[in-house]
């Protein structure tokens, strides 16, 4: 196990493109740390910089306190697992597992011991004499992990290792990677664009956008207290609903209703009029009329435009009559989501699958005021006092 520290690490390519800017974080021994973000945000480039496959343009990388910027990849004692399996088709599973050890001139008996130990760990004992063409996608990915394990590295680097698998295999391999980490305890830096992988696997998660780290925290912290509009829109499935809002010093005016927020939120908002962006998670909207005895709530009625039944859930789509603001258009573009229509913003509520909701019918919806998120449209930052909790997380604080 090892500690990994990055201090203001940046990567700028020869053509002037800045792929990574000022990345700083620390992995403790045995930690499973995730880099997540949309395609092109710089997460794989940052992983390659840590591995030594790309040279850092600025900053410092330390493994167990030792600066490794100038070291070759083979000198950093790290093992990388790629998106493509990177196993040799002409070699058996046994030969593939042994190959990196032969390159390192490890003794024959030690190679046998490590290969057999890795095969037992990954359930590959019955497959050692097979060629990759005779294996399933999940088995090939286990071989790729085995090649990393036999090296007994201080640090695992995983670059979207499950992206080539189908949905069922991804779920299975997520569980296997989690169990493998529990057994080996090797410090792991894992890159993915899949937030489900990030939230189920990581001890901590760093959300990246345009080469910068927006927020670092546990899955619960990122979900409950997103630092800004981008993190709020990226973390959570289905995605958070957004709408413009206006604060007049006493009440919050929304496209569908108005609301007197709780005292803590009123204090955070101040007495001056201001524009805001409201965020509500689909699972926090309840199919029920407002009840004054349950505290301040946002309550409104909505006409169902479309229903999606997934088995365990029923998703009801409806529209909120509101102008598509510049902030929401920009957010949709960055999240690669459909842009808001002129005069209407699409919302979604997650219902019980037994709900009698029907397309064209009306729903009475409400949400506790304490579950509403409010953001400054200029900075994108979430206002303190909004949302369910102020879970602790490292925040970049930039929109």
Task: Quickly describe the structure.
This protein is an alpha+beta fold.
Q: Could you explain the architecture of this structure?
A:
The protein is α+β, with helices and mostly antiparallel strands and 399 residues long. It has two domains: 4-223, 3-Layer(aba) Sandwich (Rossmann fold); 227-391, no CATH class. It is 25% helix and 30% strand. It is built from ten helices and 21 strands. It has helices spanning 43-51, 93-103, 108-122, 137-149, 167-184, 195-201, 219-224, 229-234, 263-269, 326-334, and strands at residues 4-12, 18-27, 32-36, 58-63, 66-67, 78-81, 155-159, 187-192, 204-209, 212-217, 241-247, 252-253, 258-259, 274-280, 286-287, 297-309, 314-321, 344-351, 362-368, 373-375, 394-395. A seven-stranded mixed beta sheet has the order 6-7-8-3-9-10-21, with helices on both faces. Strands 13-12-11-14-20 form a five-stranded antiparallel beta sheet. A hairpin with a 4-residue loop joins strand 16 and strand 17 (314-321). Helix 2 (93-103) crosses helix 3 and helix 3 crosses helix 4 (137-149). The longest helix is centred in the middle third of the chain and has 18 residues, at 167-184. The protein starts with a strand and ends with a strand. Mean pLDDT is 89; it is low at 389-393.
């Amino acid at each position: 196990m090892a500690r990994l520290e990055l201090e203001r690490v940046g990567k700028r390519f020869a053509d002037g493109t800045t792929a990574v800017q000022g990345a700083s974080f620390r992995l403790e021994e045995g930690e499973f740390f995730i880099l997540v973000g949309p395609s092109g945000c710089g997460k794989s480039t940052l992983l390659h910089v840590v591995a030594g496959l790309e040279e850092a343009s600025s900053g410092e990388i330390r493994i167990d306190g030792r600066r490794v910027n100038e070291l070759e990849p083979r000198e950093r004692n790290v093992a990388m697992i790629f998106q493509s399996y990177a196993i040799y088709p002409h070699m058996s599973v046994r030969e593939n597992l042994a190959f990196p050890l032969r390159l390192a001139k490890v003794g024959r008996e030690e190679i046998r011991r490590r290969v057999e130990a890795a095969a037992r760990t990954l359930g590959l004992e019955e497959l050692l004499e097979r060629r990759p063409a005779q294996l399933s996608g999940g088995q090939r990915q286990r071989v790729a992990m085995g090649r990393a394990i036999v090296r007994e590295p201080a640090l695992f680097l995983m670059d979207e290792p499950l992206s080539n698998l189908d949905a069922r295999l991804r779920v299975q391999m997520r569980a296997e990677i989690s169990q493998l980490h529990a057994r080996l305890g090797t410090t792991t830096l894992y890159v993915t664009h899949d937030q489900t992988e990030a939230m189920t696997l990581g001890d901590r998660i760093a959300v990246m956008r345009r080469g910068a780290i927006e927020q670092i925290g546990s899955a619960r912290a990122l979900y409950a207290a997103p630092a800004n509009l981008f993190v709020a829109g990226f973390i959570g499935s289905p995605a958070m609903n957004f709408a413009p809002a206006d604060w007049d010093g006493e009440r919050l005016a929304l496209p569908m209703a108005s609301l007197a927020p709780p005292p803590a939120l009123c204090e955070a908002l101040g007495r001056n009029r201001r524009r805001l962006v409201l965020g509500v998670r689909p699972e926090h909207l309840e199919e029920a009329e407002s009840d004054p005895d349950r505290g301040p709530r946002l309550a409104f009625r909505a006409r169902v435009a479309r229903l999606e039944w997934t088995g365990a859930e029923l998703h009801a789509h409806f529209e909120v009559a509101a102008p598509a603001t510049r902030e929401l258009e920009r957010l949709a573009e960055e999240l690669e989501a459909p842009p808001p229509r002129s005069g209407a913003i699409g919302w979604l509520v997650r219902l019980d699958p037994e709900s009698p909701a029907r397309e064209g019918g009306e729903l009475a919806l409400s949400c506790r005021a304490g579950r509403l998120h409010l953001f400054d449209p200029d900075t994108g930052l979430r206002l303190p006092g909004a949302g369910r909790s102020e879970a602790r997380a490292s925040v970049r604080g930039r929109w």
